């Protein structure tokens, strides 16, 4: 699921600092009630995804049922880039309830990536939620891939999170704040779930909600106005712009970060 060939496509206009230039992916959902050789109901949907599909959102759903038994698989994915931030979602789940009457099987797979240009520095406050149950895994990553007008290069990820389980319920949260410098970036996500036999329900989902938190006048340069804005918000603070390290307090740690960014 981690191999992509990005194609230049007709790009949907997006307001905000991230300008999408290319993107693609795919999604597959499958569900079966009954044996492979003689199913009562079985279907698979495979769908390639364009850049427009990712920006506007895409979903697929298969449902097989016979009385109290059922098998279903659902997947929804979107790269929502906005003027004030972004929300990247990947919501896959399914169930396989055969009740000793049928074999039941449910699965989805999804992988997608989008390349964006960032013309000016931006500080990003990300609030993630990741959840897996049964057999499931999810991945989310943002990585710089090159300068604005330069060749591709090797850069560490700006953010990289993954979660998986083989028969448990696991979740992960934890806000992050980071600064992204001008350049070309790739936003990537992938997920899969599997439900069968004793694993009747499976989930693999994540949401990374983010907003841009410029300090002071938001002119792209850290200076006196940013320092004054920080001092004005000093103390306990929930999701305010001056809380640059996302710990719920505007304090010395944020002051040191502003000083470290001074002039940038």
Helix and strand layout, with pairings?
Blueprint lengths: L17 E17 L4 E12 H6 L1 E9 L2 E13 L3 E13 L6 E15 L3 E25 L10 E17 L2 E5 L2 E14 L4 E12 L11 H9 L2 E2 L12 E2 L1 H9 L4
Antiparallel strand pairs: 1-2, 1-6, 3-4, 4-5, 5-11, 6-10, 7-8, 7-9, 7-10, 7-11, 12-13
Give a concise summary:
This protein has 264 residues and is mainly beta.
Main beta sheet: 11 strands, antiparallel
The residue-averaged pLDDT reads: 88
User: How many domains, as an integer?
Assistant: 2
Shape: elongated
Uncertain segments: 1-13
Question: Which structural class do you get from the secondary structure elements?
Answer: mainly beta
Q: What is the CA–CA distance across the termini? A: 38 Å
Count of alpha and pi helical runs: 3
Element-by-element helix/strand order: EEHEEEEEEEEEHEEH
Give the beta-strand count.
13
The radius of gyration over CA amounts to: 22 Å
Strand content: over 45%
Helix content, binned percent: under 10%
Report what the structure shows.
This protein is mainly beta and 264 residues long. It has 2 domains: 18-212, no CATH class; 224-260, no CATH class. It is built from 3 helices and 13 strands. The chain has helices spanning 51-56, 224-232, 252-260, and strands spanning 18-34, 39-50, 58-66, 69-81, 85-97, 104-118, 122-146, 157-173, 176-180, 183-196, 201-212, 235-236, 249-250. Strands 1, 2, 3, 4, 5, 6, 7, 8, 9, 10 and 11 form an 11-stranded antiparallel sheet that branches. A two-stranded antiparallel ribbon has the order 12-13. α2 (224-232) runs antiparallel to α3 (252-260). The longest helix has 9 residues, at 224-232. The protein is elongated, with a radius of gyration of 22 Å. The protein starts with 17 loop residues before the first strand and ends with a helix. The model is unreliable at 1-13 (pLDDT under 50).
């Amino acid at each position: 699921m981690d191999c992509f060939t990005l194609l230049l496509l007709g790009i949907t206009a997006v307001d905000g600092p991230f300008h999408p230039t290319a993107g693609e992916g795919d999604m597959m959902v499958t569900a079966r009630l009954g044996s492979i050789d003689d199913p009562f109901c079985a279907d698979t949907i495979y769908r390639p995804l364009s850049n427009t599909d990712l920006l506007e959102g895409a979903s697929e759903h298969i449902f097989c049922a016979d009385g109290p038994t059922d098998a279903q698989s659902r997947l929804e994915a979107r790269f929502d880039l906005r003027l004030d931030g972004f929300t990247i979602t990947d919501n896959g789940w399914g169930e396989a309830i055969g009740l000793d009457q049928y074999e039941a099987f449910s699965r989805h797979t999804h992988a997608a990536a989008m390349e964006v240009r960032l013309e000016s520095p931006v500080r990003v406050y990300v609030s993630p939620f990741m959840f897996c149950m049964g057999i499931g895994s999810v991945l989310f990553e943002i990585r710089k891939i090159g300068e604005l007008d330069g060749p591709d290069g090797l850069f560490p990820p700006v953010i990289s999170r993954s979660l998986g389980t083989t028969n448990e319920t696991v979740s992960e949260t934890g806000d992050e704040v980071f600064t992204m410098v001008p350049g070309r970036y790739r936003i990537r996500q992938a997920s899969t779930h599997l439900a069968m036999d004793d694993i009747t329900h499976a989930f693999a989902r994540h949401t990374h909600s983010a907003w841009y938190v410029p300090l002071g006048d938001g002119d792209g340069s850290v200076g006196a106005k940013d320092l004054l804005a920080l001092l004005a918000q000093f103390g306990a603070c929930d999701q305010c712009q001056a809380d640059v390290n996302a710990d719920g307090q505007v304090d010395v740690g944020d002051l040191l970060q502003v000083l470290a960014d001074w002039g940038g």
